[in-house]
Write a structure and sequence with these properties.
- It comes from Sesamum radiatum.
- Pfam families: RVT_1 (PF00078).
- This is Mitochondrial protein.
- With 570 residues, this protein is of the alpha+beta class.
- It has three domains: 2-49, no CATH class; 71-241 and 263-329, no CATH class; 429-562, no CATH class.
- It is 48% helix and 10% strand.
- It has helices at residues 2-23, 36-49, 65-80, 102-108, 114-123, 137-142, 144-161, 196-216, 230-240, 268-277, 282-293, 322-340, 374-391, 409-419, 429-443, 453-456, 470-486, 492-502, 518-534, 537-545, 555-562, and strands at residues 54-55, 61-62, 170-177, 188-194, 252-258, 296-301, 304-310, 359-362, 365-371, 401-405, 548-549, 552-553.
- β6 (296-301) and β7 (304-310) form a beta hairpin.
- α7 packs across α8 (196-216), α17 (470-486) crosses α18 and α19 packs across α20 (537-545).
- It is globular.
């Protein structure tokens, strides 16, 4: 009877741990002995992670399991399985920072020992999702006296030969919804689930990289580096913008930059070039690039794997060494901006010149600081463009913001035109009305407004306060988008609209269909308004051309047309 009781207890404990792992719970109370809690969490996770419908780019909704799977496979094949052409790095940039010391370089290439392998295994978290092999680090630890010798031999063989078995480097893309409502494939965060042996290898590489990062990564970077705290950068950024609400201050500018799908778009060619540029040993670089460049992917969807394609770019989120490699890529940007802002045309943000502060990095988020003048901000934009050309990392303009203070209106218009941040999508009417409501409450101290908001937005010479009318400004920005489509500007967006939607027709002759995007429908409304106002398509084109210069439509000129007007006197 005693043996049966022990066996029952053992099986119950095994069942509990089985569902504990499946439930992905990071806390466990002593009283949670029954598996009902874990059963419920497994069911909740399954329901949350099930993808039953997807909205395609054309607005249509697909519900077929196979069609949904193909949509994700096509998306990630395009994202991770196609190589982007990048320019060579500028070797002069590397001189604007430290190089790897000989001591650190020799330490990187020392022989891997069984003790180092065991340490890496025991440092990997228990509750991470398994890769294609189905094993976790917990399994290796519990069975170390049985499998430890073979694990050590497999890992050490990689570092001796420099060759990675392709099956060992296969990766499952697990899809994590970014919000409760994730209608399209782009609304899911891809997490890479690799084989446990691969994770042990890259954990060793990451641990060896850590002292090097502390030595020569610029102080502007606060994430993923021992001894640094990301809150320090947050505090500094808050100090920078503390006085932005004051009226009479020197011109200044802060730009928050979001990099589009940062980890996924890193060029492998760029990564190899910067590792050589920093002075990493060729042997160590070969280990890294073998791990990075021999991967293949399948997409996990609704408890099944779909697709099989080789990777061509990107760093895998979930790979132990990816954060360190990404910091090394961003270090190139830090050195680039240091060099380019060292010339006489660049002026520092207030209180930044002494410490030469031009930017702060929060892993893949950037905050740039500058004096509020066109030459200085132009240099920052050139740095972002050059960095994109060499690395593949592009700015996500819809999630990037620019904050200014003390800048004259004409200069501000030039800055906004130069950065093009937040200029792609129309603002929803609910957002516009909320902004207007907040402005009214602020202006009239929460009391009933005695003057209509439309009149407040009139120019000062017409009796208003000259406050920009948000809705009209948004319309003016969208008119610029419409003009770019009309003249077939050299942008992928304009070319894509002409190719997919217009198909040889002029935008003035095109009408959106029911499934077209809100942006295209809004553009059609604006073009119809312009044609009605001017009487014909030819007259509309002629008048819009008067709002342009050599670079395109001047937003301020379009705004002068769309802004609220005083009623005509009888």
């Amino acid at each position: 009877m005693g043996d049966l009781r022990k066996k029952a207890t053992f099986l119950a404990e095994a069942e509990r741990h089985f569902y504990y792992q499946k439930a992905k719970i990071h806390f466990l109370k002593q009283g949670d002995r029954n598996t009902k809690f874990f059963h419920d969490m497994v069911k909740w996770n399954a329901a949350r992670n099930s993808i039953l419908a997807i909205t395609k780019a054309d607005g249509s909704i697909i519900t077929s399991v196979l069609d949904i799977a193909q949509e994700f496979v096509d998306f990630y094949t395009s994202l991770l399985g196609t190589e982007d052409q990048t320019r060579p790095v500028d070797d002069g940039v590397f001189h604007w920072g430290l190089s790897l010391t000989l001591e650190l370089a020799s330490n990187l290439c020392r022989a891997v020992t069984p003790a180092e392998v065991k340490t890496a295994v025991f440092q990997i978290s228990d509750n991470k999702a398994p890769g294609p092999d189905g094993y976790t680090s917990c399994f290796l630890r519990k069975t170390w006296n049985i499998v430890g010798d073979r694990v050590c031999r497999a890992v050490m063989d990689f570092f001796r030969s420099g060759r990675m078995l392709r099956q060992l480097n296969h990766t499952i893309i697990a899809l994590v919804p970014k919000s409760e409502h994730s209608p399209s494939v782009a609304d899911y965060l891809p997490i890479s689930c690799g084989n446990v042996i691969y994770k042990v290898i890259t954990k060793i590489i990451a641990d060896r990289l850590s002292p090097a990062l502390e030595q020569f990564i610029d102080r502007s970077q606060a994430a993923f580096i021992g001894g640094r705290n990301i809150t320090d950068n947050i505090f500094l950024a808050q100090e920078m913008v503390l006085q932005y609400s004051r009226k009479r201050i020197s011109p200044r500018c802060t730009i928050n930059v979001d990099l589009r799908k940062a980890f996924d778009l890193v060029s492998w060619t760029f990564l190899s070039r910067v590792l050589h540029g920093y002075g990493f040993p060729p042997l160590f670089i070969s280990w890294i690039m073998e791990c990075v460049s021999t991967t293949s992917f399948s997409v996990a969807l609704n408890d099944s794997l779909h697709g099989l394609f080789p990777g061509q770019k990107g760093l895998r989120q979930g790979d132990p060494m990816s954060p360190a490699l990404f910091l090394l890529c961003m270090e190139y940007f830090s050195r680039l901006i240091k060099r380019n802002t060292s010339n006489s045309d660049s002026n520092f943000h207030l209180k930044c010149e002494k410490l030469k502060i031009t930017h702060l990095l929060f892993a893949d988020d950037l905050t740039l600081f500058s004096r509020g003048d066109l030459p200085s901000i132009h240099i920052l934009m050139e740095c972002l463009q050059e960095f994109r050309d060499v690395s593949g990392l592009a700015v996500n303009t819809t999630k990037s913001n620019i904050f200014t203070a003390g800048i004259q209106d004409d200069i501000l218009d030039g800055i906004l035109a130069m950065t093009e941040f937040a200029r792609v999508f129309p603002l929803p009417m609910a957002v516009i009305e909320k902004i207007h409501r907040l402005c009214r409450v602020f202006l009239w101290n929460s009391k009933r407004a005695p003057v209509a908001w439309e009149e407040i937005c009139h120019p000062k010479e017409e009796g208003g306060l000259g406050i920009r009318h948000i809705k009209s400004w948004n319309v003016a920005l969208l008119a610029g988008v419409l003009w770019n489509i009309y003249r077939e500007a050299d942008t992928f967006w304009a070319k894509w609209v002409n190719e997919v939607y217009l198909r040889g027709a002029l935008p003035w002759d095109w009408q959106p269909k029911k499934g077209d995007s809100p942006l295209l429908r809004r553009l059609a409304e604006i073009q119809d308004r312009i044609i009605i106002d001017f009487g014909s398509t030819e007259a509309a084109i002629q008048h819009i051309a008067e709002w342009t210069d050599s670079k395109g439509l001047v937003t301020s000129k379009a705004y002068d047309y769309f802004k609220p007007k005083l009623p005509r006197q009888p």
